[in-house]
Design goal:
Shape of chain B: globular
Structural class of chain B: alpha+beta
Structural class of chain A: alpha+beta
Largest sheet of chain A: 10 strands, mixed
Distance between the termini of chain A: 59 Å
Helix content of chain B: 10-25%
Shape of chain A: globular
Oligomer: heterodimer
Distance between the termini of chain B: 56 Å
Strand content of chain A: 35-45%
Number of strands of chain A: 24
Helix content of chain A: 10-25%
Number of domains of chain B: 2
Number of helices of chain B: 10
Largest sheet of chain B: 7 strands, mixed
Strand content of chain B: 35-45%
C-alpha cells in the first residue's frame, strides 16, 4: 500500500489508498440437507488522487501493476470531475478489536453442526420446511493517505439465518442471528419464531381499506431507505429532497428518533472510522421527529459547506465490488430509538390491522418522494388484539412523511434486522392496505 | 491461458473440477444533473473454482493466482463435508466436450472510442433531458462492462468467450414544490457502441413523462383489470414466472416442484413464454454459459402448459430434464447459478386498441420500476399509467405497485397484443447481479390484479 501511495503522491496533489481483504465461507441447508458450501478469498485496492481541484479514481482486485493503477487514476482526471475536499489527516481513533479466533478458524463442520442444531430444534416444534443458511467471515480493511492517515480495522463475524416456510409456498418467517464469535442461535429466539410461525399458518382474506399497520424490524428498511435518500447530501445538493429547507423542523412524530452508531458495542460490525478515514460516531438524523442532520461523505460535505459526518461508505444498494464503488453518503449501523410498549402489548392494542413480517418490492416506487407500496411476504392479520393468520395477496402503501406522523407506539426493544441495523417494531395508524 | 488453467487443476483428487478465469473491464462515466461525477476505466481479474467429489459439490472464488491452491483445497473440503453430513448428492448431466474460442462481434467497438467522445455523447443526452420544462435533475451513466472468460473443466472442455455490454442508463427527476417524480431511462445492448448513437427521442420522451407525472394523481389501492405495456409485462414474465422456471429456485421445495411439473396447465390458453439468449444483439446474448455449455432456446410455457425449464448441469440431472446452458455468474467473484438470459411472451394477434376495448374499465400501466419475487408471490412497480374508461385512455396515474400470485395471475391473462419490445438493459439481483437479464413482451390484458396505492 505504501509503495502505491508513494507512486500516486508523486503524480498528484493528494492521494489515498483503500485496501480490503475478505476471507469467508458459507453453508446452505435447504429442506433439511446441506445443499451448498462455498468459500471466497477476495482482495481489492482503490486509489483516489486529487490534482488541481479535480479527482481521479482507479481500482483493481489484484495489485499486479502499481504504475498501471496510478496511470488509470491519472486518465480518470481527464474527465474533469471537480472535488473541493481534502483527504483527512490522523485523528484519535480507538483501537479496533481483533478478529475472534473461533471465527477465523471455523470450518465447514462447525458451521454445519450449529446449523443442524437449529434445524433439529425447530423440527421438534413445527411441521413445515425449515431452511438454514450460515456463514463466517474475517475482514481486513486499511486506508492510507498523503495527509498522514494510516488506519486499519480487522473484524470477524458469523451468522445463522433460518427461514420457516409456510406450506406450499416460499413465503416464510425468518430470523437472523449474528455474532463476532462462534456461537449458537439463542433458543428463546427460536421459540418465539416457532410460535409466530404457528400463528400465521391459517391463510386469511381481508378487505381493502385503511387500518393499523405494524412494521417489524426486518421490514423497517422500507421506511429507512426513503428517509436516508431524503437526508443524503446528494439529494440536498441536487435540490430534490423533500426535506430541503426543513432542518430543525418537526417533520415526523415525536416518537421517532433515527440515528446511526457504528461505535455501539453491541454492533457486530463495530468500527470507529468510515471508508474515507473520517472518525465515525453516533449521528442523529431525526431526534423526536425533528430533522437535524444530513448524511454526508467528504465530497458532499465540502459541496454543501458542512463538516464531514463520518458517513462515507463504499457500498451500494445491490452489493457490488467494494473497491469499485466510490464512497457515498450512507447511514451505517442505523438505529431507531426504542419506545415503551412490548411487542405483545402492541399486538393486543390493535383492533384491526396488519403486522408486516416481510415485504416484496421495497425498492420499487418513488423512493425520493417517500412513497412506498410493498407486497406482504408475509403479513399477519390482527383482529381484536389477536393474530388471525397470514394475509393472502395484500399490499401496504403510503408515504413515509404521512405514516410516520401517525405513530401509535414504538416497541421497547431493538432487534437485529436481517436487512441491517437494529430497530423496534412500530405501530402506525390509518395506513392503506389493498387486498383481494 | 487455457493451458495454465489446465495445469492449475491437474492432480487434484476429485471426480469433477472446473476453473474459470476472468478479466473484467469497466468504463463508467456519471452525471448528476449538469455535473460530471465520475470517470474511470479499470481492469481486474480472478478465479472461480468448483469441485465435485463422491456426490458432494462445492465452490470457491479467489482474486490472486497464489490463492488458487487454497481455493481448490477449500472446495474439496466443502464437497467432502457435504457427503460426510448427509448433504445433497449432486450429479452433473452429461454434455458434449467443447473446445471453442468465441470471437466478439460488435457493431462499433466501444474500446476504440475515446473517453472524450463517450463523455460528449452522455452529456448530449443528459443536457437534452435537463433542458426540458420542470426537470430538476438527472442521474445518467455510461456503463461499459467486458468479461473475458476462460473456462476449463476436468472433462476436457475449454471455452473462451468475450462478452461486452454498453449502456446509457439512469433517471430523470421532475420537481414541483415538494413533489418529486422520477422516470427511468436505458438504452444499450451487447452488440456494440453504435446502438447508443442517435437515440435523442428516447431521452426526450422520458423527460416529458417525468414532467407530466407531477400532475398525475396517485392510484387508489384495490383490485383492477389491467393492460400492461410490453416492458411491464416483461417484468412480470421475468419476476413472477421466469424465476420460477429457474430450476435451482424450486429444486429443494417439494411442494413447489410438484406444482411446477412439466405438462401442468398453469396459464391461460393465450400465453406462450420463451427464454432465448441466442438472439444476436440482445443484451441477454451469449453463446456458452459459465459451465461451458452452449445456450439453447427453451419454450418454457406453450399455450398455458409448462413445457420447459432453465437448468445447470446439476439441476438438469436432478430433474431428469435437458440442460439448457443457463448457468451464469456475475463475474469471477461468484460461482455460476441458474439465470434467465432473454425471456419474453410471444406476440398474439390483438392491437393495443383491441386490448383497451376488451379491458373496458381498468388501468393501462406502463414500464417497469423494479420487481421482486418470493416463491409464487411477486410485486413490481409501474413507472406510470392511465385510468381507462369504456376502453378509452383517461387521466395519468402514479405511485403504482402491483402484487400477485403467479399461478392465479397466469390463469388471469386474457389476451396478448401483436406488438413486441425487448429491454435494452438487464440488472436482475438474484444473489448476484445479472446485467444480461433481458426481458420483453407484447401488451397483455390481465384480470384482477392487486394494485397498492398511496
Amino acid at each position: 500500500m505504501k509503495k502505491l501511495l508513494d507512486i500516486a503522491a508523486k503524480a498528484s496533489d493528494q492521494a489515498e489508498v483503500f485496501s480490503i481483504r475478505n476471507d469467508s465461507s458459507s453453508l446452505e441447508m435447504r429442506n433439511g440437507k446441506p445443499s451448498d458450501m462455498s468459500a471466497s478469498i477476495q482482495s481489492g485496492y482503490a486509489l483516489r488522487i486529487l490534482k488541481d481541484g479535480r479527482i481521479g479514481t482507479a481500482y483493481t482486485k489484484n495489485l499486479l501493476n502499481r504504475e498501471e493503477l496510478v496511470s488509470n487514476a491519472l486518465d480518470s482526471l481527464k474527465g474533469r470531475v471537480e472535488a473541493g475536499f481534502s483527504f483527512p489527516g490522523p485523528s484519535e481513533i480507538p483501537e479496533s478489536w481483533l478478529p475472534d479466533e473461533s471465527v477465523s478458524c471455523m470450518g465447514f463442520h462447525d458451521l454445519h453442526s450449529r446449523s443442524r442444531a437449529v434445524l433439529d430444534y425447530l423440527s421438534r416444534k413445527i411441521d413445515g420446511q425449515i431452511d438454514v443458511n450460515s456463514g463466517r467471515g474475517v475482514q481486513d480493511m486499511s486506508i492510507m493517505n498523503t495527509s498522514g492517515l494510516d488506519v486499519s480495522r480487522k473484524s470477524s463475524f458469523m451468522y445463522i439465518f433460518t427461514s420457516l416456510l409456510f406450506p406450499n409456498t416460499e413465503t416464510a418467517i425468518r430470523k437472523l442471528y449474528q455474532s463476532r464469535k462462534a456461537a449458537d442461535f439463542p433458543v428463546e429466539e427460536l421459540d418465539a419464531l416457532a410460535d409466530l410461525y404457528a400463528s400465521g399458518l391459517p391463510e386469511v382474506s381481508i378487505p381493502t381499506g385503511r387500518m393499523k399497520v405494524v412494521f417489524t424490524p426486518d421490514t423497517m428498511y422500507t421506511i429507512l431507505w426513503r428517509l436516508s435518500q431524503a437526508a443524503s447530501g446528494k439529494s440536498f445538493y441536487n435540490s430534490v429532497s423533500p426535506l430541503q429547507n426543513r432542518r430543525g423542523e418537526k417533520v415526523l412524530s415525536e416518537k421517532f428518533t433515527l440515528y446511526g452508531d457504528p461505535t455501539d458495542p453491541l454492533e457486530v460490525d463495530q468500527h470507529f472510522f468510515d471508508d474515507e478515514g473520517v472518525p465515525a460516531r453516533k449521528h442523529t438524523i431525526f431526534d423526536k421527529g425533528v430533522f437535524g442532520n444530513l448524511i454526508l461523505n467528504l465530497d458532499y460535505a465540502s459541496k454543501l459547506g458542512e463538516e464531514p459526518t463520518g458517513t462515507g461508505y463504499r457500498g451500494g444498494m445491490w452489493g457490488g465490488e467494494t473497491v469499485a464503488l466510490a464512497p457515498a453518503p450512507s447511514l451505517s449501523c442505523s438505529r431507531i430509538a426504542p419506545g415503551n410498549v412490548s411487542f405483545e402489548d402492541m399486538i393486543r392494542s390493535i383492533d384491526r390491522g396488519v403486522v408486516v413480517f416481510g415485504v416484496l418490492g421495497a425498492h420499487s416506487g418513488n423512493i425520493l418522494n417517500g412513497d412506498f407500496s410493498v407486497g406482504l411476504d408475509p403479513g399477519f392479520y390482527v383482529e381484536n388484539g389477536e393474530i388471525k393468520g397470514r394475509v393472502r395477496d395484500g399490499m401496504v402503501s403510503g408515504n413515509v412523511y404521512d405514516v410516520l406522523n401517525n405513530i401509535e407506539s414504538v416497541e421497547n426493544r431493538l432487534h437485529v434486522s436481517y436487512a441491517g441495523g437494529m430497530y423496534p417494531s412500530i405501530l402506525l395508524d390509518d395506513v392503506s392496505v389493498a387486498a383481494k | 491461458m487455457i493451458d495454465r488453467l489446465r495445469s492449475m487443476i491437474s492432480g487434484v483428487e476429485a471426480d469433477f473440477i472446473d476453473i474459470r478465469y476472468e478479466i473484467k473491464t469497466e468504463t463508467r462515466i456519471g452525471f448528476a444533473g449538469r455535473e460530471i461525477r465520475n470517470v474511470g476505466s479499470n481492469r481486474t481479474d480472478g478465479y472461480a473454482i468448483r469441485v465435485g467429489k463422491n456426490g458432494g459439490f462445492s465452490s470457491a472464488t479467489v482474486t490472486r493466482e497464489e490463492d488458487v491452491p487454497r481455493a481448490l483445497q477449500l472446495a474439496v473440503e466443502g464437497a467432502e463435508t457435504i457427503v460426510a453430513t448427509g448433504g445433497k448428492k449432486s450429479v452433473l448431466a452429461d454434455v458434449p466436450v467443447v473446445v471453442e474460442n468465441v470471437e466478439l462481434v460488435l457493431d462499433g467497438d466501444p474500446r476504440e472510442v475515446g473517453i472524450d467522445d463517450k463523455i460528449e455523447l452522455l452529456k448530449k443526452y443528459n443536457d437534452l433531458m435537463l433542458d426540458q420544462p420542470r426537470i430538476e435533475t438527472t442521474n445518467l451513466n455510461y456503463i461499459e462492462i467486458g468479461r473475458e472468460k476462460h473456462y476449463v473443466n476436468s472433462e476436457g472442455t475449454a471455452v473462451s468467450e468475450e462478452i461486452l455490454t454498453t449502456n446509457i442508463a439512469g433517471e430523470v427527476i421532475a420537481k414541483s414544490g415538494s413533489l418529486v417524480q422520477n422516470i427511468r431511462v436505458a438504452i444499450g445492448g451487447a452488440d456494440g457502441y453504435n446502438r447508443l448513437l442517435s437515440r435523442e427521442d428516447v431521452f426526450l420522451k422520458r423527460a416529458k413523462v417525468a414532467a407530466e407525472l407531477l400532475d398525475a394523481e396517485p392510484v387508489k389501492g384495490g383490485t383492477y383489470n389491467v393492460v400492461l405495456s410490453p416492458m411491464l409485462a416483461g417484468v412480470f414474465t421475468h419476476e413472477a414466472f421466469g424465476h420460477f422456471s429457474e430450476a435451482d429456485i424450486i429444486e429443494d421445495n417439494p411442494s413447489l416442484r410438484e406444482k411446477m411439473a412439466l405438462g401442468e396447465k398453469l396459464g391461460s390458453n393465450v400465453i406462450t413464454i420463451v427464454a432465448d439468449s441466442t438472439m444476436p444483439g440482445q443484451i441477454g446474448y451469449y453463446e456458452y454459459d459459465d459451465e461451458g455449455v452452449a445456450v439453447k432456446p427453451v419454450t418454457l410455457m406453450d399455450r398455458g402448459v409448462l413445457t420447459g425449464r432453465l437448468h445447470s448441469r446439476r439441476t438438469a440431472s436432478a430433474f431428469g430434464e435437458p440442460v439448457s446452458g443457463h448457468t451464469v455468474a456475475e463475474d469471477m467473484r461468484f460461482e455460476p447459478i441458474v439465470r434467465m438470459g432473454t425471456i419474453y411472451i410471444k406476440p398474439g394477434e390483438m392491437t393495443l386498441d383491441d386490448l383497451l376495448a376488451e379491458l373496458g374499465d381498468g388501468l393501462y400501466l406502463i414500464d417497469g420500476k423494479g420487481g421482486q419475487t418470493s416463491g409464487e408471490n411477486f410485486t413490481f412497480g409501474a413507472q406510470y399509467g392511465f385510468k381507462v374508461k369504456d376502453g378509452r385512455i383517461g387521466p395519468m396515474i402514479r405511485d403504482i405497485n402491483i402484487m400477485g400470485n403467479l399461478f392465479t395471475t397466469l390463469q388471469n391473462i386474457e389476451a396478448i397484443g401483436n406488438d413486441m419490445e425487448l429491454s435494452e438493459r438487464g440488472g436482475c439481483g438474484k444473489g448476484q447481479l445479472n446485467i444480461k437479464s433481458a426481458l420483453g413482451s407484447p401488451h397483455i390484458l390481465v384480470r384482477n390484479m392487486v394494485v397498492g396505492g398511496v
